[in-house]
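[agent] plan:
  1. take the single chain provided in the ticket
  2. run structure prediction with default settings
  3. attach structure tokens to the ticket
  4. add a short note for the reviewer (M.T.)
[agent] executing step 1
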Amino acid sequence: MGEAIMLKTAPVFTAARGAGLFLAALLQTGFIWALVEGLDIKLTALLPPPIDVFIAKPVPRPPPQPVNTRDVLPEPVTAPKPTVDVAEPGRDTALTLTPPRPTPPGPVERGPVGLMATHTTPPYPPMEARLGNEGTVLLRLIVGPDGLVKAASVIRSSGYVGLDRAAQAWVMAHWRYQPAQRGGTAVESAANVAVSFNLRNGGN
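[agent] step 2 finished; step 3 output follows
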């Protein structure tokens, strides 16, 4: 039995087939180019714009200027001038006048002199006499320019109120003085007197 031998014949390259392959290669190349161009546009749109980087040159500083003390020191402060309020015509104004201070009086040239005829002994208070109370009371008298005793205050008590009051009342009612003199004029003055109560002599 014999084997059949099949011979493969090489494909026949025709002009039509060559044109088709060229056209297919051209289309494939165009597709790839279009795809690459499209991607390049999208990537360019998505990327941020480039940043320009530069190094700034240092600016030279001007040299320090001398300080003028007249521009730094504050101006001297001056007190405002007082204003004088001048009254307008027809407007009521009150003028206050300060009275002059009184001149202090000079020393008394002569003190009061008692008129001995009036310096009688006060009567002994009956109640104090029955109780046997004795003592001396010291009085401060104010003598007026007319010689009368204007006031009599106790500056040292006799120890008994009855004796003190009896001495005050009697001296103011009966005792008289020549008034004190200052510059030839009678003036008010003061004098201290002692009034004693003794049962043996019954008076001053």
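[agent] step 4 note for reviewer: The helical segments are 15-46, 69-72, 126-131, 161-174.
[agent] ticket updated
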